Amino acid sequence: MRSFLYTLILFLSLTTSYSQDKITYLSDAIKENINPYKKASNKAYEKREIEEGKILFDSLVKNKLIGTKFDDFNLKVYKDKNVKINRIQKSVFIITYASWCVIPKGEIPALNILAKEHRDDLQFIVVFWDKKKDIKNIANKFNEHIKVCYANEYYSKDSHIVATIKHTLGFPTSIFLDEDKNVIAIKHFNYKTKIKAPIKEAITNSYNYFSKDINENLVKTL
């Protein structure tokens, strides 16, 4: 397994950067590189080699997905008009969830605080891989500075974003885009708050985790 792992990582790193003269969309980059990644990743997780699975994902992101153009998805916003990614005139921070997954304690309040603090330079978008009715109870927990969206296989117009993001990158996942909608960062969350942690502590820890990530990525956009 390790021999195959390092062979794949070497393969992913051979053609790292995309030409600035040619636009490569995220969906195309994923299509070109996802099969060998999935094969190795599935083997790693079947054998409970979690760290190797993480290494594979990070290698795919770093060598093949960073620098691509985010597709101009048309997102359905809960209780608001649809939004097209390219019409957002600032950097974008996207987080994907599913309503049936338990969001860690303190995470939503922390994101609400951060979205308010960065309302002038960053658009927060939360995407639930659900039908509209499934997010009714959780959507209202996010404040007005966060666009709560939803996409699902049962909606015909969602097939592209579901295939590109949900079925390949998994969730919960964060995606950071610069003002031109180039992909700056993609990561799986590795932060987990303690179940019995006091709510203030949980909010602070979650705030610090996301704040560090956001500020580091904002610097990359300058």
Describe this structure in words.
This protein is 44% helix and 16% strand. It is of the alpha/beta class and 222 residues long. It has two domains: 2-65, no CATH class; 74-220, 3-Layer(aba) Sandwich (Glutaredoxin), CATH 3.40.30.10. A seven-stranded mixed sheet has the order 2-1-5-4-3-6-7. Strand 4 (122-128), helix 5 and strand 5 form a beta-alpha-beta unit. The longest helix has 22 residues, at 199-220.
Describe the strand arrangement of the main beta sheet, using strand numbers. 2-1-5-4-3-6-7
CATH level 1 name of the largest domain: Alpha Beta
Provide the residue-averaged pLDDT: 88
Number of E-state strands: 7
Query: Low-confidence segments, ≥5 residues, pLDDT <50?
Result: none
Question: What shape does the CA trace take?
Answer: globular
- As a percent range, the share of helical residues equals 40-55%
**CATH fold name of the largest domain, please?**
Glutaredoxin
User: Under the CATH scheme, which architecture of the largest domain would be assigned?
Assistant: 3-Layer(aba) Sandwich
The CATH superfamily of the largest domain is known as Glutaredoxin
Q: State the secondary-structure class.
A: alpha/beta
Sheet with the most strands, sense and barrel status: 7 strands, mixed
